[in-house]
Each structure stands twice: as structure tokens, then as C-alpha cells.
Amino acid sequence: MITCVVEYVVDPSKIDAFERFGRRWMELVDLHGGTHHGYFLPSEGASDKALALFSFPSLAAYEQYRTLFGKDPDFIEADRIRDESGCVLRYERTFMRPLLPEHAEG
């Protein structure tokens, strides 16, 4: 399993647009073989930081999902939410492997 952690710098005045963007991507990841663990939005502290975590069974499965970017109309529409609203100022992806409690791995 591989987990993608996306760290966002968001425009706090456009958090509603970011939530629309996030809800759409949660659906798309789940529809295309991944498991979305959710978006984590500003609450206290820095008001411009957000995270997303989602997993795929393997790097190959993630790469297959990535082939849809810029081609699939649903992916293009989801990115349009971000692009037209300006809710995301920048983001960075990191790939990690989870270490889970033993009872969750079985």
C-alpha cells in the first residue's frame, strides 16, 4: 500500500470552494481504485494549511489513476473548481507507506 499525503496552502477566504474541490476528489479517488482518508482543514492555528490523505494498493495502481489527469472529463471538472476559484495557492505531494496497528493490518 502507498499513501499520498498532499499538503496544501489554501486561501482562507475561499475555504468553501476548497471543500467543494475536496469532496469531488474524495469521490474520484474512491471510484478509481483508491481509498480516500479525507481532507483535514484549518481549525485552530495556521488558517491556510490543509492536508489530504489517500491510499492505493500499490504505486502501479496510483500511476494508473494518474493517467486520467487532464483526459477524463470528471478529473478536468474537479481541477476546474480549484483553478477557477483560486482556493489552492500551492501544494506538495509526498508518498508514504503506512505503519498500522497490527490488528488493522490483518
UniProtKB/TrEMBL annotation:
A Pfam family assignment: NIPSNAP
InterPro entries membership: Dimeric_a/b-barrel, NIPSNAP
Top-level division of the source organism's lineage: Bacteria
Domain NIPSNAP residues, every copy: 7-99
Protein's recorded name: NIPSNAP family protein
